[in-house]
């Protein structure tokens, strides 16, 4: 829903207020994600002692050996590429005048 809603909102903000103010508006919307994520997060917190200690390098190395990690990364790459492509070219396409 994000790219369906945010891209037209971004284009409307750019058209109405210019790209500088539109960027500020989109940043304000993005900052709303932090409290929303905290509110929707897990209700119980584990203490640090309950969590297994693991170095980030070991976690990345372990993930790199898992097939699901690479499939997930491929999905994020394809999705990110399409979102960037749409966000870059959709506003210009919307400003074309068709005969």
Q: Quote the average pLDDT.
A: 83
Low-confidence stretches: none
Q: What is the CA-CA span between the terminal residues?
A: 31 Å
**Major β-sheet profile:** none
Rg measurement, Å: 20 Å
Q: Count of helical segments?
A: 5
Q: Please tally the β strands and state the result.
A: 0
**Order of helix and strand elements from N to C terminus:** HHHHH
Q: Which structural class matches the secondary elements? A: mainly alpha
Helix content: over 70%
Strand content: under 5%
Structural shape: flat
Characterize this entry briefly.
The protein has a domain at 1-38.
3D structure, described in words:
The chain has helices at residues 2-17, 19-31, 33-40, 56-64, 67-94. With 99 residues, it is mainly alpha-helical. The chain has a domain at 1-38. α1 packs antiparallel against α2. The chain starts with a helix and ends in a 5-residue tail after the last helix.
Note the main attributes of this structure.
single chain, 99 residues, mainly alpha, 5 helices
Give the SSE layout:
Blueprint: H1 2-17, H2 19-31, H3 33-40, H4 56-64, H5 67-94
Helix pairs in contact: 1-2
């Amino acid at each position: 829903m994000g790219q369906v809603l945010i891209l037209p909102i971004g284009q409307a903000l750019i058209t109405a207020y210019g790209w500088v103010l539109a960027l500020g508006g989109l940043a304000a919307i993005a900052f709303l994600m932090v409290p929303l994520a905290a509110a929707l997060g897990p209700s119980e917190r584990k203490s640090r002692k309950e969590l297994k200690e693991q170095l980030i390098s070991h976690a990345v190395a372990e993930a790199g050996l898992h097939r699901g990690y690479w499939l997930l990364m491929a999905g994020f790459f394809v999705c990110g590429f399409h979102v960037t492509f749409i966000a870059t070219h959709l506003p210009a396409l919307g400003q074309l005048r068709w005969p």
